[in-house]
Amino acid sequence: MKKIKLVFNIIFQSIFWLWNLTFLSIVYLGILPYVGILLIQATIDGIIPIEFSLTLIALIAIPTLFTIIGFRSFRNKPLQLMRLFYGVETPLFLLCLLRLFLLRELTPASSQIIASITLCIAAYLVEMLYGYLGKRDNVQNISDSQSSHNKQPRFLRLIGEKQSAWLQLGCHSLMLVVGIWAATLLMYYALPVAVFTLYGFFTLVIEFFNFTWVSPFLEMFKYGAWALALIWIPLSFILFGLTCSLFVVMPSLYGFLYIHSGRKIWQSFAAQYGKNTALIGSLGVIAAWRAIFCALQQQPQVAALKMLATPPANDSSRQTLLAKSDAMRAGLVNAYLSPYRYLSTVVENNHIYEIYKNSLNLPDGAAQTVQHSYNFLMSPFLYQGSSADVEKAEKLYGEFFDTELQKGDTESVKHAVQSTFNREEAQAGLLNVNEEKVWLQSQEVTVKENGDWADVQLYEVYKNQTPNLQEVFYYFSLPESAAVTGVWLGDTGDLKKRFAFTVSPRGAAQQVYKQQVVERVDPALLEQIGPKQYRLRAFPIPAKREFTQTEGPTEMHLWLTYKVMRLPQGWAMPVLAEKRNIFWNQNTRRTIAGKEVKYSGKEARETWLPPFLPAAAQQPLTAQQAILPGGNIISAKPVADANYSLPQGKKFAVILDTSRSMVAEKKEVKETFEWLKANAASKNAVHLYVASAAGMPPKFVENVRNFEAAKVTFYGTLQLKDMLQQFAQLRGDKSYDTVFLVSDRHSYELSDDRKPKLSISAPLWTVHLGGLPPGYDDATLKAIQDSGGGVATDMKEAMQRVATTAASGESTVSVVDGYAWSYAKTPQSKKTAKSAAVAEPKNAGNEGFKPIAARQLITALSKQKTSNQLTQLDAMHAVAKNFKVVTPYSSMIVLVNDAQREQLKAAEAKSDRFDREVESGKEQLSKPNNPLNVSGVPEPEEWLLLAVGAIGLLAVFLRQRRAKMVG
Fold first, then answer.
1. 844: helix, coil or strand?
2. pLDDT digit string (tens) for 420-478?
3. Terminal CA-to-CA distance of the chain, rounded, Å?
4. 227 to each of 26, 100, 656, 878, 954, how far by Cα in Å?
5. Predicted confidence band at 243 (pLDDT cuts at 50, 70, 90)?
6. For residues 210 and 947, what is the distance between their CA atoms, to the nearest angstrom?
7. Mean pLDDT of 601-618
């Protein structure tokens, strides 16, 4: 018996020390000396994801820690070393591998499993080090470890002996469940690993005597890699072989150790407090754990997808669904993020079937049975649905919550994406809204006044705070009569070296910009996406580097110029609607109109620009006129406040948006309709069209005074062009003087590129309660521009502008920003040509006003009906290009090399040069691989060939490196 015990002691000691010392030798002598410091530097610089570095640290720390514990506490106790190795170190090491490489974002169900396993590992270690924590008198069957470690850990002494005993009973009762579950789960892999290990061993022996490995090894010696050939490769094979061999027996040993430990603690507790008490305590813990487990197994997307499968057909059904919004949100987000939260779907999990059928030749039915039993055990980690649920959930979320999922639940999506390695897209998307990645280092605003109008320049310097290239993104608005006249990029503040803009058709500019961002070459793009709204993007802001030396630029400089008419408040500044990646704080240097401005606290973080700058000149506004090429004359006549009026004797249609987001503006909706009833309905005919999301038809209310806004149920999502289509279908042959569409800021991200035929003969005005949207899709913008309509933020403003425009005469293009803008075209006869030639010199002093006038000319031209739309767009673009202004049809793009310019030239020659795509900002998340879905399992000999091939590739690499060194 002593000899047998000695043999087992030698085996136990060998397993523990051989595996740990082999692993630590490879790590500390073969890996860290060569790549340790470089790895840290690359991680700080962002070249290597931090998850990789954390994984390496954790995997090194576990064997290191337990090697020290084994040496200090159990070096003369072989059996305890085995308990430490199989009961604590190996499961913790394996759990770390799974958590960092396979498990991404944990769900409540998977968190319970991981927490339970971790708790059991800790409880097992405490039992090894301190034994039973209760009173030891009259306790039988105490193990050697218990009798030799009588002191309790300090943290348990604080709660008392009795409480410690109950806590230990609970943990070890749970250990019985966890031990059986984990051992059974590991058994599914242990059998194939045993077969592969045996087969691989004999194959290795055969291949060894075929001497196919000799040539790669000689190459290593030839190029000085003798340490790799003689030490590290053999050690790696030893470690791999040991790991496979030890894994084969792990399920049985792990299960046995945990069940034995649980039984032992239960017996000790029962001896002290009685069997009935111990039984009740154990069963209570197990029952409570199982109840929690069953509750957490109910995945929320099942009910959410079922409830939203059919659109509700009445207000009562809508209100019922709205009351369950939290459950809907949880379910739809869970479905959308299922690739990050679960290892696989139940249907796609087929790896056990493939292993047992194709590699172990099990019959198809038996292999399916094994797979089903595995799925049952793995249910906390498997998604109950299909991979198609991702797109379905995203669509339903937009339809129910009236916003893009990535915008509505940004933090949930970010957390899921950050739970695994995912290289972000270069373009700033919805997940980058208000992100603090690029610091606004300095900002300078200069104003050059020219009487009733001024030239404004915004100059900003950006510093990247991340190790990746970033894009700066702004949505902003300017007064409707303003004209954006330039945008430039530079690596420095040197004006002579900055890159200039090109005015290009909106579709061509967008196409080239997106392509250049993909290729990571410097562009900038400035677009007008609404009567007042603009979108500005600049890329790339140079990455921040702590260690890596670079000769490239470290910051980006941007200049933006525009011309603006004087308002009573002064000179209007850009109004920020949304920003992505960019941030500012109290350290941002700001110089506005020659004066240094200091902000602090919340104001410093939230203020981009002041709304207005005071005008030095306060004289009354004067009339302006510009004679543009082709005999086009634009005149601007000041309109006094007393000259604004409300319409009388007109027939209006009011379309009400009832989408979900309008609930935030419920008070404003009520006030708007009260104003209509009091100020418009009595003097005009006002018909109401109540738009509706899918499931219920839109409604027509002939007299707006009979409408009760408080009773409206706001539900679902509606795009502006969908509301206009509903209006067109419902109105029949009714005609109106003006159509007003009452909406909110609406979700621009949910817009699409559909271009339905929107035949609206009357001017279309969109009234946005709560503020202007970031922009419009081009089909909606075209409907507003072509009809001669506009945008406003309250009904009174819209109706005043409509009435005042009508009263100003047929030549009036618009009444905006304190002026009535009119358009006239001089017939080009010989006499008028001569008069125009005389007038041009007189008008030369007003050259700076012409870009503003050109914007109004383009607005006038857009209202003209034509059978050839492309010709009309080209004519409007020619005006924009001539006067270097941004319009809804012409964008500014900054290019830095000839290849980009050639690409833009080719895009401008295409027939779709004005076709601009809606940019929702939705980021295409890279789905993690499904580790439980396989198309085939490599045979054991294939694994060996892969290993030999790896050695061969290494030899080739060494040869190439040697050749470069010699060269």
1. helix
2. 544 444 455 556 667 889 999 999 999 999 999 999 999 999 999 888 889 999 999 99
3. 67
4. 12, 31, 78, 71, 14
5. confident
6. 15
7. 92
pLDDT digits (tens, 9 = 90+) for 79-130: 999 899 889 998 888 888 887 778 888 899 999 999 999 999 999 999 988 8
Under 8 Å between Cβ of 152 and 133: yes
Secondary structure class of 427 (helix, strand, coil): coil
pTM of the full structure = 0.83
Could you tell me how far CA 87 lies from the centroid of its own chain?
A: 40
Dihedral Cα 362, 368, 373, 376, nearest 10 deg: 150
Q: Report whether the peptide linkage leading into residue 638 is cis, meaning its omega lies within 30 degrees of zero.
A: no
Tokens of 42: 């690359």
pLDDT at residue 565, rounded to an integer: 95
Q: Is the pLDDT at 829 greater than 70, yes or no?
A: no
Tokens found for residue 340: 């990050």
What pLDDT, on the 0 to 100 scale, is given for residue 143?
43
Average the pLDDT over 832-843 and give the result: 45
Torsion sign, CA atoms 334, 339, 343, 346: positive
- How many residues are present in the chain? 967
User: How buried is 699 (Cβ within 10 angstroms: 0-12 exposed, 13-18 middle, 19+ buried)?
Assistant: middle
Instruction: Give the 3-state secondary structure of 754-798.
Output: CCCCCCCCCCEEEEECCCCCCCCCHHHHHHHHHHCCEEECCHHHH
Strands 699-701 and 632-638: unpaired
- SS3 track for 711-766: HCCCCCCCCHHHHHHHHHHHHCCCCCCEEEEEECCCCHHHCCCCCCCCCCCCCEEE
- Residue 595's H or E segment, with its range, is strand 595-597
Q: Round to whole Å and give the CA distance between 153 and 171.
A: 16
Task: List, as own/partner pairs, every contact residues 511-517 make where C-beta atoms lie below 8 angstroms and the sequence separation is at least 24, other chains included.
Answer: 511/907, 512/893, 512/895, 512/900, 512/903, 512/904, 512/907, 513/537, 513/893, 514/427, 515/903, 516/895, 516/900, 516/903, 517/426, 517/427, 517/471
Helix (H) or strand (E) holding 572: strand 571-572
Q: How many other CB atoms are there within 10 angstroms of residue 605's CB atom?
A: 14
Distance CA 471, CA 468 (A): 10
DSSP of 343-387: SEETTT--HHHHIIIIIS---HHHHHHHHHHHHHHTGGGEESS-T
Evaluate if residue 141 carries a pLDDT over 60. Answer: no
**CB neighbourhood size of 499 (10 A):** 16
CB 392 within 8 A of CB 403: no
Lowest-confidence region among 155-169, 330-344, 854-868: 155-169
CA atoms within 13 A on the CB side of 511: 20
> Is residue 576 classed as helix, strand or coil in its secondary structure?
strand
pLDDT tens column, 533-544:
999 999 889 988
**CA 732 to CA 261: how far, in whole Å?**
81
Q: How many CA atoms lie within 13 Å of 161's alpha carbon, on the beta-carbon side?
A: 11
Q: Are 612 and 571 in contact (CB under 8 A)?
A: yes
**CA atoms of 462 and 579, how far apart (whole Å):** 14
Which residue shows structure tokens 């503020």?
Answer: 771
User: Rounded CA gap, 126 and 170, in Å?
Assistant: 14
Q: Which two tokens stand for residue 224?
A: 């000085």
At 115, list the tokens: 């927490």
- In 3-state terms, what secondary structure has residue 54? helix
Residue 315 and residue 396: Cα distance in Å, rounded?
18
Supply 170's token pair. 């609970």
Higher-scoring residue by pLDDT: 93, 29: 93
CA distance 217 to 347: 45
The count of other CB atoms within 10 Å of the CB of residue 624 is 20
User: How confident is the model over 179-207, as a mean pLDDT?
Assistant: 79
Asked whether the predicted pLDDT for residue 958 surpasses 50, the reply is no
